[in-house]
Amino acid sequence: MKRQRGKPMNERGRELRRDLAVIFIVMAVSLFRPSELLGISTFTKTVLANIKPFVYIGLFLVWSAMVKRSIINKYLRDYLLAVAYSGVFWVLIRTIKFEMTIRGDRLNFFLQYVYYIPVILIPTFTLFSALHTRRGENYRIPKALLIPVLCISITLILLVLTNDGHHFFYGLKNGVFSVWEYSYGIVYYIILIWITLLITIAIFLILIRAKLPNRKFTVVKPFIIITVIVIYFLLERIFPRIWEYFSSDWASFTSLAFIAILDSCITTGMIPANTDYEKLFRALNLEMIIADDMGKPCFVTAGVYAPYIIPSYAESDISEHNTILKTYRLNPGMAVWKEDTSKVTRLIKRLQDNRNELSSKNELDRENVNTKLAIQKAQENNRLFDLSQQATKKQNEALDDILEAYSKEKEKEKKKALLAKAAVLGAFIKRRGNLVFAAEKYGNISSGELKLCFHESIRNIELTGADCFLDFHLTEDKRIGMSTACLLYEIFETVVENCIDDFGSVFVRINEEEKRLSAFISIGTNRHLKEGSLPFYVLADSDNGSLNISFSLPTEGGEEL
């Protein structure tokens, strides 16, 4: 199967248009400062200079709204919002201090001290956000790292704010201490070293984690943004006049730079984000609707081709024409899915018609035979259904538990994670049942059917944010024994369910060697398999955050493993 990497074209197009719009706004705003070079009046220059910071603030607030909507991890969301709000605060303080006339040393010093609060906080929370790259949605920074870093940053901020009492940040210069004449103290240089250390570690983490695990592919967007930032600061040192022409607003550019780096991590998938709850639900292969308490459909899966009309009083199954609507209360709302009863309805009607045709014994006998055949066929289907249910009993029970947990869960992020797990289990239940029916009809399984099983499971695993790849080296007309096909798929499902809460990547390779199917499964995870969860002939090992599984089975089945 050819791997489909990246996002759909329309989604990439939206991201490109958004990035171009932001670049255009920033380039336009950069012309506000050198307005005197363009012959613009003093009044217009003043207006543009006052508009400029609010344009940046608007960009920061729009980005913070995007973070609130799309970031799953609560702690990560708080760190990203702290970066955005610190940038807003920094631009405001910078505007008040440098664009307005402030009289008095005390007030000027206060603004200058407060100016350093976001200078310290933005790199601090950027580091915390960088630690979440390539982590699961439930990741939390260890307290042994989080608390010391926060304490150091807060201590440095307090030392700056209380400088008038000790002068370790700004000190006397030639016996004078004023807003225009002062010297830098030891705390100033400690802050420079601390900020440099935070930024260096954050950028290092982002760059080393830009490479996809177990792949040659590397995310390039963070590299591009970091390169632009480096060019900006090189211009400041080497070509100061060119730097001043484009943007000498150090606070606004630095805030925007940090946000751009973090946003690139979000859009490229390095930081776990909700790619859209509605898209996730519609991607499920289960024909299901979630409605509100008034019976109005809120979300419809891809398998449902027309919306149902759901009575608001529905508390149990509803029969309508040849369809039974199954309901499950979610509190609030309800889940509804459809079961087709057209075959059973036709069979019942046929029996009723037979009773009305008793005038001819031959006609009655013939109809009775047909009816018995239909009943036998229905019984056979029931038998196969029971086999399918028995084979997926564990997954059905797990799916019931997930639906029950979903109905009780209040947090949207956790509910989204539960839906993703339900998608993975639903795919296995569906495809495992298909194997039962295919084997009953043909006596064995085609490699094409087996490939569809793995393809659908992997497609649903991708909804969790994992990067997946299927390397299937069997011809479409190859026939595989029922026991081998089922064992191969069940072992894969066991490994997937064991690591479902901590996916980074999933790689599956299947090929045939000397009339035996060889399988290799590699999952990027820190989880370990439970002892005894796999058959004895399956080899498993963990290496540097990767769980590797390998085994082989006879192609035609029925042999000693």
UniProtKB/TrEMBL annotation:
Q: Which UniProt keywords apply?
A: Coiled coil, Membrane, Transmembrane, Transmembrane helix
Its transmembrane ranges are: 20-40, 75-93, 113-132, 144-162, 182-207, 219-235, 250-273
Question: Where, if anywhere, are coiled coils annotated?
Answer: 348-416
Query: Where in the numbering of this chain does the Histidine kinase N-terminal 7TM region domain appear?
Result: 57-251
Q: Does the keyword Thylakoid apply?
A: no
Q: Which InterPro entries match?
A: HisKA_7TM
Q: Which domain of life is it from?
A: Bacteria
Q: What is this protein called?
A: Histidine kinase N-terminal 7TM region domain-containing protein
Its lineage opens with: Bacteria, Bacillati, Bacillota, Clostridia, Lachnospirales
